[in-house]
Structures are given as structure tokens and as C-alpha cells.
Automatic annotation (TrEMBL):
This is Peptide ABC transporter permease. One of its GO terms (biological process) is protein transport. It comes from Bordetella genomosp. 5. Belongs to the binding-protein-dependent transport system permease family. It is a multi-pass membrane protein. Residues 243-453 form the ABC transmembrane type-1 domain. The chain crosses the membrane at residues 6-25, 46-67, 161-180, 201-226, 246-269, 281-302, 322-343, 378-405, 431-456. Its main location: membrane. The keyword Transmembrane applies. Coiled coil: none annotated.
Length: 479
């Protein structure tokens, strides 16, 4: 039985998942909130993006379940000897990919779907020293003659992956159509797109995801699909591991930003006077400091503390995780001023409404008014800000890691991949696959988050609602 390991960010991620499930339960019980979220449900780009985000979240959660494998007993060990666990911390994602080339490093660079190294090495062949491209340890080792067998094998495996993905997609379509038929939605209406929810768009996205995952899984079982980096690590494996880092940075930083922004923003708008002046002075001073310099200074102080208290960490993963957690706290506690301004402006308007004035006339305490009347009426601004800030923070992490003040060097992130690719693009021949893979994964994650955030903003902000004409006409027929 392995030893479970609970890292700071693991606990934070799963607590956020529980909070999201609790919010979903609350939405189902509230007709007003259900009607608002129904507008998001009817947005085709948003729901297609939601499917992609679900894939990223699944990868991130699998990579957030950590454990230390149990080591076999030592020779001649006593029966009652204590169990020994591996010093390296693994995740469930690592366990699922353990027997694939993704977890088997090479010696150096290799191109996508290659069977030989990208760089030459000195070797002894038939007793003579030669300089040639050596075979990879894991990529394409099943081929006897890579020169003639590689591309036919790639085409065959890609076709098998497409067939498997198409079978899964077909099964998903049949199951969805059967469930929708029980609700009175005909298959013809789904295929023509004449439904209240964008089932056809979601089905097309689901089919594309199945096909892509099927091809990558089929090829990844024997090849390095996106090649390897300078020290031989699989680039696809690094990208999958970087997904968790991006999710932690985007979500945990936003959560850390909310308490000071909500507290100061509502207090400044409601109390006005000296309280407002003090809070404005605080966030004006904070925004006057260049953000990168402020974060860099806090990150360096954090690193000094970690280096001086190395006895607090039993594994390198715990050390890297604490740095990531503290980095999220730093980004959150230095980036709350924008939301604070928005909430202050909204609180200034809400405090003058009749029901707030009536509550004050009846002697209701100030903080009770803030909690019962102001806070629920600004939550739409908070929700819009949360979903919009996520993608910006993912990109911001890439900038910080590029500057060397981001996550721990031993932790995978998109910023670290881009930083390592900085010099690779200037080589001759150019090594392009590391940067390309990070770009594709970041594009898919950030674009999906932005499209979903736009739909949330349009649904919760009455001043920015925009509907397509065909979808707007369909909306009028809905209850």
C-alpha cells in the first residue's frame, strides 16, 4: 500500500472542486441563478470550450493525487521491519503513464515520432569509433528497420487511434441521443442544430477530442509524439504535467485575491469618508509599484525563507509545491486592486438604494447590511472577474517563469518550457517542437477559458449581453 502525500496545492485544488460542486447545488435550487446560467448553457462556443476545460481539469486532478510507492523489503530484513517508501513522489497520472515512452527519458533531443536522437554521438561500431545518430531507448524500439518501417507503422497506429476515437465518439453520440430522446428531443433536431442547448456543437467538439486523444494515445504508446527536450524528457509528458501548474496558478491566485478585494472594496464604498480615503491610498500605492518588481521582491524573500528552512521538507516535491503555493498567495495579495476598484464603485451605488437606506433606518448593523444586501448584489462582478482573470494569470505565470522568478525549476510549467526553448530556437538546425507543444497546450487552455469567460460575462452583466440572431430568436421561445 503506497503512502498518500497531501501537498498544499492538492488540498487547495480539491477544496475548490468541492466549492464548485456546492455552488452547482445552490444554482440548482435557485430559479434566478438557474435562469442566468441557462444563458451560458445556450452559448455554443462556451459549452464547446467547457468540454475542453473538463479535459484539462481531469488531467490536473489526476496529477494532484500524490503518493510515495512502497519499496520492496531489503534482503534478510526482519519480518517486523518498518516499511520503506520511495523518496520520489508520484501522482496518479504518473502511474497511468508509467509503462509508456512518456515516462522513459532519452539521452538528448529527439524529434517528434523519431527513432534516433537528434544530435550525433560518438559510438563504437564493429570495433571502430564512429559519430552517428544513436537509437532511442524508448521511442520506436519495436521497429527492426526504422528506415523502412517507421512511417508505415505511424500511419497504421494513427489509423487505429482514429478508429478507436471514432468508436468512442459514436458510442457517446448514441448515448446522448438516447438520453435526449427520452426528454423529447429528436435526433433530427440535434443534427440540424434546432435545440435550445448547442448539442450539435458539443457533439462535434467531443468527436474532435476523441479523435485527437485516440491518435495521441496510439502513437504515444511506442513513440515520443512531440519529441524530447535537452535532457531527454518527453515533451508531451512535460505539457501534461504543466497543466496542473497552470490550473493551480490560475485558480488559487484568484481565490487568494478575493478576500482583500471584497473586504476593502465593499468597506470603501459603503463607509466612504476616511475609510474610503485610507483604502484608496493603499491600493493606489500598491498599483504605483511595477507589478513584476513587486512580485519578484516577494518571490525572492520567499525563496530565502525556503532555503533557510530546508529541514521542513521531506521531499523535493513538498519544497517545490510550497514555493508554488506561496507564489499564488503573493500574486493574489498583490493583484487585488482592480477588483477592489470595481466593488467600491458598485458599493457606492448600492448604499444609496432604498432597501439599504431602510435597513439603516431600522438600526441594522453596518456589517450585517454589507453581508446581507451588498455582498449578494456584487457577486456577479466577482464571478465575472474570477473567470476573466484565470487565463491572464496562466499567461502571467509563463512570463514569471521566463524571467526566473516563477515556479521551482524542478516543477514543470509552460513558462519553464518556453524559457528552455529560448536558446533552442536559435540553434542550427532549429529545435522547434518544445516551444510548439507549449504554445498549442497554452492556446487550447487559454482560448477555452476566454470563450467560457465571455459567455459568463454576457450572462451576468446585463450591459454586455450579446446574442447571435439565430440563438436570440430561439431564446424568446424558452420559458
Amino acid at each position: 500500500m503506497p503512502q498518500l502525500v497531501f501537498l498544499w496545492t492538492d488540498v487547495a485544488l480539491f477544496l475548490m472542486v468541492l466549492a464548485v460542486l456546492g455552488y452547482v447545488w445552490r444554482v440548482r435550487r435557485s430559479p434566478a441563478m438557474r435562469a442566468t446560467w441557462r444563458r451560458v448553457w445556450h452559448d455554443a462556443p462556451a459549452m464547446s470550450s467547457a468540454l475542453i476545460l473538463v479535459c484539462f481539469v481531469t488531467v490536473g486532478l489526476l496529477d494532484s493525487m500524490h503518493y510515495r510507492p512502497l519499496l520492496p523489503p531489503a534482503p534478510n530484513a526482519a519480518p517486523d521491519a518498518p516499511k520503506a517508501y520511495a523518496p520520489a513522489v508520484k501522482s496518479v497520472l504518473d502511474g497511468l503513464l508509467e509503462n509508456t515512452p512518456l515516462m522513459k527519458p532519452e539521452r538528448n533531443y529527439s524529434m517528434p515520432l523519431a527513432t534516433h536522437q537528434f544530435l550525433k554521438e560518438s559510438m563504437i561500431v564493429d570495433g571502430q569509433p564512429v559519430r552517428d545518430f544513436p537509437r532511442l531507448r524508448a521511442g520506436g524500439v519495436h521497429l527492426k528497420d526504422p528506415a523502412t518501417e517507421r512511417w508505415p507503422d505511424v500511419r497504421q497506429r494513427a489509423g487505429t487511434g482514429l478508429a478507436a476515437g471514432a468508436a468512442v465518439a459514436l458510442a457517446g453520440w448514441l448515448l446522448a441521443l438516447a438520453l435526449l430522446r427520452r426528454r423529447g428531443v429528436t435526433p433530427g433536431a440535434v443534427l440540424r442544430g434546432h435545440t435550445d442547448a448547442p448539442w450539435r456543437a458539443m457533439g462535434i467538439t467531443f468527436t474532435a477530442l476523441c479523435l485527437v486523444i485516440g491518435v495521441v494515445a496510439a502513437l504515444g504508446s511506442v513513440y515520443h509524439v512531440f519529441g524530447t527536450d535537452r535532457i531527454g524528457n518527453d515533451v508531451l509528458w512535460q505539457s501534461l504535467k504543466s497543466v496542473r501548474t497552470a490550473l493551480v496558478i490560475g485558480s488559487l491566485t484568484t481565490i487568494a485575491m478575493l478576500p482583500p478585494a471584497i473586504l476593502f472594496g465593499l468597506a470603501a464604498g459603503y463607509f466612504k469618508g476616511r475609510v474610503d480615503d485610507v483604502i484608496q491610498y493603499i491600493y493606489t500605492t500598491l498599483t504605483s509599484i511595477p507589478g513584476v518588481l513587486l512580485v519578484a521582491a516577494c518571490a525572492l524573500m520567499m525563496q530565502v525563507y525556503i532555503d533557510n528552512h530546508s529541514e521542513l521538507f521531506d521531499t523535493s516535491a513538498a519544497r517545490a509545491d510550497l514555493r508554488l503555493f506561496l507564489l499564488c498567495m503573493i500574486l493574489g495579495l498583490t493583484g487585488w486592486s482592480a477588483l477592489c476598484r470595481l466593488l467600491r464603485a458598485e458599493a457606492l451605488k448600492l448604499r444609496e438604494l432604498e432597501y439599504v437606506q431602510a435597513a439603516r433606518a431600522f438600526g441594522v448593523s453596518h456589517w450585517r447590511i454589507i453581508l446581507r444586501h451588498l455582498l449578494p448584489n456584487v457577486m456577479h462582478i466577482v464571478l465575472i472577474t474570477v473567470v476573466l482573470e484565470f487565463s491572464g494569470l496562466v499567461l502571467y505565470e509563463a512570463v514569471l517563469s521566463y524571467l526566473g522568478i516563477g515556479v521551482d525549476p524542478g516543477m514543470n510549467s509552460f513558462g519553464s518550457m518556453i524559457d528552455s526553448a529560448r536558446l533552442e530556437m536559435s540553434r542550427e538546425p532549429m529545435i522547434w517542437w518544445n516551444l510548439m507543444t507549449a504554445f498549442l497546450f497554452m492556446l487550447a487552455l487559454v482560448l477555452s477559458a476566454n470563450l467560457f469567460a465571455d459567455a459568463v460575462r454576457d450572462a451576468f452583466d446585463p450591459r454586455s449581453r450579446r446574442y447571435k440572431p439565430a440563438r436570440a430568436a430561439l431564446q424568446r421561445t424558452l420559458p
